[in-house]
Amino acid sequence: MEVINRNSVAAFLGPDGATIRELAASRNSSARKQSLAEATIPVGGTVTEHFHRTTEEFYYILSGTGLMKIEGEEREVGPGDTVVIVPGQHHKITNNGRIPLVLLACCSPEWTAGDNILVE
Questions:
Q1: 101 exposure class (CB count in 10 Å sphere: 0-12, 13-18, 19+)
Q2: Is residue 89 part of a domain?
Q3: Of 27, 39, 87, 96, which is most buried with the most CB atoms under 10 A?
């Protein structure tokens, strides 16, 4: 049985200022077909608009609120919301609240830097 505790995973600062913890991926677990990361976006912070050629991604909002933009359509999201992002869709999220925005990002196949294409 493999159990990875969030607090045992080192956090790193992403290029947009988001704090990322890669909870499970081939780089740190026996997972091979997907990855799971926690992202914390500071108040006023924005993830740079990007897309993935092959990766399907889900955002699950744990706390805070955000403005989600996919292919030009915008919608406010908050705790309990799941956002489905299919390959090729340009997307970004902005923390529009008063507390850090914390979300889980699940990717299949797993997230890789080479499949993360910035458009801004």
A1: buried
A2: yes
A3: 39
